[in-house]
Structure formats: structure tokens, C-alpha cells
Amino acid sequence: DNGTSSWEFLLLGMGNVPSLQAPLFLLLLMIYLLTVVGNILIIVLVVADRHLHTPMYFFLGNLSSLETCYSSTILPRLLASFLTGDRTISAQGCIAQVHFFGSFAVSECYLLAMMSYDRYLAICQPLLYASLMTWKVSLQLAAASWLGGFLSRTVVT
Fold first, then answer.
1. What is the rounded CA–CA span in Å between residue 94 and residue 82?
2. What topology does CATH give the domain 18-156?
3. pLDDT tens, 84-104?
4. CA-based nearest residue to 43, from 30, 18, 31, 60
5. How far apart are CA 77 and CA 97, in angstroms?
6. Residue 13 — φ and ψ, nearest 5°?
7. What is the pLDDT of residues 12-28, one digit of tens each?
8. Is the Cβ–Cβ distance between 68 and 46 less than 8 Å?
9. Which of 73, 48, 90, 86 is nearest to 153 (CA)?
């Protein structure tokens, strides 16, 4: 009776070419750092400057937060894999990664739809825009996009 079982996956996507490990690691690290620093800079500017306290910039700040979370679900694990050479991921880790990646992807789609609705109101209903797109409505739309993304993936995962 052979009772061995494995609860992890072997990641084969990047191959084992030693000459490419360092350049790929540096390239992915630079992309990740630029993404995170750029998004944090946008968030800080939106929060710090009073002139940017409008629904459009509120949604852009949310999109930057979402993009930071989105890129942080897979790239750190990939970078750690390059450093340690460990090409395995546990089943629970894989499920968590897929769940969060999918949640952030769906939330991004919902948030982009909310942002387009905001711009539609600003362009097509300029006289009613201030009464239609209040801070309360903006907050509800952003919260609905985040919550909708996570709930839709929770049902699937």
C-alpha cells in the first residue's frame, strides 16, 4: 500500500536556465518596485492635495490601491522563488493566490465601470453632476466594486 501524497504544486513556468535567473529576477523586481512606488505616489498625492479631493481622483486613488494589491499577490512569491530556487507552492497557498488574484481582477473591472459612470455623469450631465455624484455615492460605488469583486470570487473559489 503506497500512501504517499503531496499537497503542493511544482512551478515549471520559468524553467531552470541559470543564466536567465538573475536578469529575470532584476527585471521583475524593477517592474514590481516601479508599480508599487508609482501607485503609492498617486495615493499620497490624492490624499495630500486638497484640490484633488474630487470623485475622479478618489476613484484613481482606489484604482492605485487596487493595483498595488493586485501586483502584490503573485510577484513577491515569484521573486522569492527566484531567490530561493524553491519551485513548489502548497495547495492552500495556490488557492489563496488564485482567490486574491481573481478578486482583485474582478474588483478592478467593477471599479473601472464605476469610474466610467462617474465620467459619463460629468460629461453628459454637467449641471446635475454635483447632486448625482456626492461623496456618499462615490464611497458606495467604490465599496461596491471592492466588495463585489471579493464576493464574486468567494463563490467561485
1. 17
2. Rhopdopsin 7-helix transmembrane proteins (1.20.1070)
3. 878 888 889 888 999 999 999
4. 60
5. 9
6. -60, -35
7. 666 667 777 888 889 99
8. no
9. 73
| Cβ contacts of 76 within 8 Å, gap of 6 or more | 32
Strand partners, 130: none
**DSSP states along the chain:** -------EEE--TT---HHHHHHHHHHHHHHHHHHHHHHHHHHHHHHH-GGG-SHHHHHHHHHHHHHHHHHTTTHHHHHHHHHH---EEEHHHHHHHHHHHHHHHHHHHHHHHHHHHHHHHHHH-TTTHHHHS-HHHHHHHHHHHHHHHHHHHHHH-
CA distance 24 to 140: 41
Residue with cell 467604490: 142
Q: Grid coordinates in use for 148?
A: 463585489
